[in-house]
Design goal:
Blueprint lengths: L7 H7 L5 E6 L7 H13 L5 E6 L2 H19 L3 E4 L4 E4 L5 E7 L13 E5 L6 H14 L7 E6 L6 H8 L4 E5 L9 H10 L2 H7 L21 E2 L8 E7 L5 E9 L2 E10 L4 H11 L4 E6 L14 H7 L3 E2 L7 H13 L3 E4 L3 H9 L17 H13 L14
Helix pairs in contact: 1-2, 10-12, 11-12
């Protein structure tokens, strides 16, 4: 079958003659669409006797992304197929005959009891590294009885995980790199929005599709002491306060915004405390200021007293609340690093606990904030709630080209 208009990296992936192939690419680089083209070439190669296993990290991604990827393409091209929802299977009865079986990688132990000719694991690096190896072995077992069976990976890079080990360290097959900017079907404003959202490290990872070591490194890697200033005198009637509700310590950072720059000029690090005490120290130190809080929004449920939640205690004290729900931790960290990278933050040197956090809080082996120290991460969480809500990561504009 002659496929028109596919991108060079999509063609290279689809037509690869290697037993194992991986395409590692940035967001919207067209790597997911390459799965369809791989199936078509396998169908031609196997003369309609292809039995392809598609594995997604979660059932939700399987349902929302991978399964519709095939059904929408077949509908668009007028290809005759039958979707068997109960078995998560598609049977194709047309010029690209074959069978596609869909499974979730949530539980590798359930990927047993059947054989296929080929498999593709989508977004492999989203899966925890500890589970990736088991999933890879389970997928290999499914093609063990097939002559010239193939295995492929399609993923955005998420650090030095199993894709890196397999295709860079062990060099088991062909590794194809795809940049977001390689997809010329994307509008310029989409690509520019990614550059606006990401710092230099995330640009390498999520636009250029490069492996970047994100584990066991500082969470706030874009911070350095150039962002620290000697002192600052508040100029406005309103102060902006980031808050992390925790008993020991309860933390807050105090700031104001001057044009597009956020200046952190004070902090509270309260031992064995509560939200009532935080309100007291805020009112004592800044009695004539309007206070707007950017708190951990789980405080809507957490109760310091028998009758009031932490958020309600702040509101009863006349403090305005900004926020509805917390961002994902990953997005919050990305927002902070992006704000530093875009030169939007200054911190006075008296904020010693915040500076310590920004220099010492790390990422654990699963890409999450390292919470092993009781003293670290709380005040940088408070800082993160404030920064993310002032400088949120913008949702990229929608783009109308569904073919790539």
């Amino acid at each position: 079958m002659n496929i028109k208009n596919y991108l060079p990296h999509q063609k290279e992936f689809a037509t690869s003659k290697e037993r194992y192939t991986a395409i590692v690419g940035g967001y919207r680089s067209g790597k997911t669409r390459a799965i369809i083209y791989k199936y078509i070439h396998l169908s031609v190669k196997r003369k309609g006797k292809v039995k392809l296993l598609i594995i997604a990290p979660t059932y939700r991604l399987l349902r929302d992304v991978d399964l519709p990827l095939f059904t929408e393409y077949f509908d668009e091209k007028g290809i005759n197929y039958k979707l068997i929802k109960s078995d998560l299977k598609i049977k194709v009865n047309d010029y690209v005959c074959g069978e596609i079986i869909f499974r979730s990688g949530d539980n590798p132990q359930k990927i047993v009891g059947f054989e296929v000719t080929d498999f593709i694991i989508d977004e492999f690096d989203i899966i925890r590294k500890a589970d990736q190896k088991d999933l890879w072995v389970k997928a290999l077992a499914r093609i063990s009885g097939s002559k010239n069976g193939t295995g492929s990976i399609v993923t955005t890079p998420e650090g030095y995980k199993h894709t890196y080990e397999l295709f860079v360290e062990k060099k088991i097959g062909k590794l194809i790199k795809a940049k977001t900017t390689d997809n010329h079907y994307l509008p310029e404003d989409y690509i520019q929005s990614l550059f606006d959202n990401y710092d230099s490290q995330l640009i390498e990872q999520y636009i250029n599709g490069e492996f970047v070591n994100i584990n066991n490194q500082p969470a706030y890697y874009e911070f350095n002491r150039e962002y620290i200033i000697d002192n600052y005198k508040p100029q406005k009637n309103e102060i902006l306060v980031g808050i992390d509700f925790n008993v020991d310590p309860l933390t807050a950072v105090i700031s104001e915004q001057i044009q597009d720059e956020l200046i952190i000029f004070d902090e509270f690090y309260l031992r064995n405390s509560n939200t009532f005490r935080l309100v007291e120290v805020l009112k004592e130190k800044y009695p004539n200021k309007t206070i707007t809080a950017f708190p951990d929004m789980t405080g809507k449920a957490r109760k310091t007293s028998a009758s009031l939640s932490d958020i309600q205690i702040l509101q009863k004290a006349g403090i305005k609340i900004q926020g509805i729900r917390n961002p994902r931790v990953k997005n919050r960290i990305a927002g902070v690093n992006n704000a530093f990278d875009k030169n939007k933050i200054r911190i006075t040197k008296n904020c010693k606990y915040l500076i310590r956090d920004l220099e010492q809080v790390g990422i654990d082996n699963y890409g999450e904030i390292d919470k092993s120290s009781q003293d670290l991460s709380h005040i940088s969480d408070a800082f993160g709630y404030l920064v993310f809500r002032k400088y949120p990561l913008k949702t990229p504009p929608k783009w109308g080209v569904s073919s790539f």
